[in-house]
Specification:
The chain is mainly alpha-helical and 119 residues long. It has a domain of 67 residues. The protein is built from five helices and two strands. Strands 1-2 form a two-stranded antiparallel sheet.
């Protein structure tokens, strides 16, 4: 097994803007290997991401159940943000169901736009 080099944690965090690359939090920061070392990944900076504990947990709970890449997942709001948004009072007099439909149509539109622009 190759010797793993020491990761310059502060430097990596600073290079990624000082906080979570998904939600922007600046506390409870983790360094995440995009391709796990156990799967052949390495400790090079381009294989590392900065995530808060919540987003790190979210990715690991989804990664085995999704066909999307880590970079694709980063483009969407954190799950806790989506759940929080959906729990808020409906804007502009919409019913709860209308609000949920509008919210998901918006995010599906973003997803479809990104898919079209990627390939």
């Amino acid at each position: 097994m190759p010797v793993r080099k020491h990761l310059p944690r502060r430097k990596i965090i600073a290079q990624r803007g000082g906080g979570c690359q998904k939600c922007g939090r600046q506390d409870n920061i983790n360094i995440h290997h995009i391709v796990a070392v156990s799967d052949g990944g390495n400790d090079e900076v381009d294989n590392l991401a900065v995530l808060c504990g919540g987003c790190h947990k979210e990715w690991h709970s989804l990664e085995m159940r999704t066909r999307h890449t880590f970079d694709f997942w980063l483009k969407f709001p954190p799950l806790n943000y989506i759940l929080y948004t959906l729990s808020q009072p409906c804007p502009e007099g919409l019913t709860g169901e209308e609000y949920r439909q509008a919210f998901f149509q918006f995010h599906v539109g973003i997803r479809d736009f990104r898919r079209a622009s990627e390939g």
